[in-house]
Amino acid sequence: MRWQLALLILATCLAAVLPRVAVADRFVLAGGGVLEGTLLNREEIPRTSYEVRTPLGVKLVLPHEQVAEYTRQSSAREQYQALAPTIADDVSSQWKLAEWCREQGLTEERRQHLGRILELAPDHIAARHALGYVQLGGRWTTQADDLTAKGFQLYRGAWRSAQDIALIEQRAKSQQIAREWLARLKRWRGELADPSLTAGAYQKIAAVRDAAAVGPLSELLPAEPLREVKSLYIEVLAAIGSDDAVQAIITQSLNDPDVEVFHICADTLERLAPPDAVKKYLAALKNDNNVRINRAGHMLGRLGDASVCGPLIDALVTTHQIVIGPGGRGGDSYTTTFDGSGGSSFSAGGSTKVYNRVAQNQEVLEALVRLSGGQSFGYNIPAWQRWHNVQRAQGGNVNLR
After folding, report:
1. What confidence score (pLDDT) does residue 352 get?
2. In terms of domains, do 11 and 94 share one?
3. What is the tally of structural domains in the chain?
4. N or C: fewer beta carbons within 10 Å in the chain?
5. Residues 6+ apart with CB under 8 A from 101
6. Start-to-end CA span in the chain (Å)
7. Residue 136 sits in which domain range?
8. Does the residue 162 lie in any domain?
9. Phi first, then psi: what are they for 254, rounded to 5°?
10. For the chain, which residues score pLDDT lower than 50?
11. pTM of the predicted structure, to 2 decimals
12. How far from 288 is each of 130, 161, 293, CA to CA, in Å?
């Protein structure tokens, strides 16, 4: 019983300092003090106890003999219903009632009385501000009215233009369609593993032409373990042919660990000859990963745009920094520079070593030979640069496709 007594004392103390806002019954205790809360077992007859929930949500059970007096208090709304008819219909009285409503948390009732004040005194500044009005151009308006007049709508908790709303709804619709495609493609992928369903599932995937399926295909492609299924996904992306579908194939060509999948992508892209592919592979020439540099060089050679010879010369020989940390653990290449020096090492922090590894990029060289019409200076960068300068002076670097 000690814990009940402690809770009772705490609830009594809190009741003395908390405002009387909503519903409260009043209990005068036999041992002194007053407790406010909500009587839960109001219908109990004969009464043996008082089950009370305090304003803080604590539930107490008081034996009948511990309560000297019980009074049911009316709620703030009940008090308002009794009070409102007695208030005079003038600005001062309506303002006082509006303020009382604010203190009691009666938001809607307060708005009604603030509105009545504006009917009686349209320029009542305090009432205007309380209702969210501001003065714009010498007239009172609310933010909502001002934004509505400008063509905005309250949509999902924010004021937006009709164009923004249309974009949001279209994006939501597209995302829903993409989720449906992802579920469908996953189901068909599962059916590929069932000999009795393989043929049908393959045909269903191969027949996909909806651009909304590109996102799900781009998600499934990198995670797919089987080369044959990857090839199917690449074929479908190529058939769809949208910019994001082509980008998915380019990304896969640079990242797939299977060199055969790279060549499937390369053959597909050479056939499609997408206009932005050259730009994508030029960016990849500056990648930290030497494999990606060579794959980008290979693709630039196959795409046949001789104007890329300059960047290919810059990427002919690259230097990669490799960090070996404490305990001899190595890290992947993280920095690529485009010069012929390298092979040195230096220490950092007394326990970490950074090595420069020079890479002669064979695929980049082959691309240069192909795009130059058969010229070959090996990895002699100055010789390639002299040749390139002559070609530029003569108006060379013609697209060889």
Report:
1. 75
2. no
3. 3
4. N
5. 80, 107, 109, 110, 113
6. 94
7. 77-142
8. no
9. -85, -25
10. 1-23, 328-348, 398-401
11. 0.60
12. 60, 43, 8
